[in-house]
Amino acid sequence: MLDWDWDFALTEVLPELLEGLVITVEATIGGFILAAILGLLFALGRRSENKWLSRPLGAFVEFIRSTPLLVQLFFLFFVLPRYGIRLPALVTGIFALGLHYGTYCSEVYRAGIDAVERGQWEAATALNFSPTHVWTRIILPQAIPPMIPALGNYFVAMFKETPQLAAITVTEMLLTGRIIGTQTFRFLEPITMVGALFFLLSYPSSLFVQRLEARYAKRG
């Protein structure tokens, strides 16, 4: 039988875990905003006709995609300070998440842009619209809505990746649970509750993304 202490769980563990949850959510939202911006820039850069831009950028994107997030976290947090670049742990975590997932988001953007009908490009060219007008008024408004479900999946995945930030001392939810367990010698309640909180947030988000996928599939 599990030796579960409800008083300990609700009065001592839960308040601290909620503080860690705030850090987890901040890292997820900050990382996703950065990933969305970087992903679009990477996608546009790789589509550039300038080979001096598109080829090195493509190699960089593939390198980031092919290396673990944990390695990138360690590099940013432990290696860059040797060269005078020091960032707070949370900022480093947000940047690492944004950079890592930005490379994946770039492929979503590229697929969405490529899905825009060729006739739209030809019509914009025939009407002599400026590149800014073409991208902001014609291409991206058509390309981005179908991308939303895929981007939503990456948002959920990023949320579940935040425990890796504990490796660089970010006191997100899992590290908070581990600290409580170490201090009290009780790991059952904090670790179980960490898992429960992740589930309570990520599962409804996954269902919402699935509804978006079904919605856009019907439109297609």
Description of the structure:
By secondary structure, this protein is an all-alpha fold. It is 81% helix and 0% strand. It contains 8 helices and no strands. The mean pLDDT is 90.
Short description:
It is built from eight helices and no strands.
Shape assignment: flat
Content-based structural category: mainly alpha
Helix content class: over 70%
Task: Count the DSSP helices.
Answer: 8
Q: Total number of β-strand segments?
A: 0
Q: Give the topology string: H per helix, E per strand.
A: HHHHHHHH
Distance between the termini: 52 Å
Radius of gyration: 21 Å
**On the 0-100 scale, what is the average pLDDT?**
90
- List unreliable stretches of 5+ residues: none
Question: Helices and strands in order, then pairings?
Answer:
Elements: H1 6-46, H2 51-65, H3 69-79, H4 89-115, H5 118-126, H6 131-161, H7 173-184, H8 188-219
Features:
220 residues; mainly alpha; 8 helices; 81% helix; flat
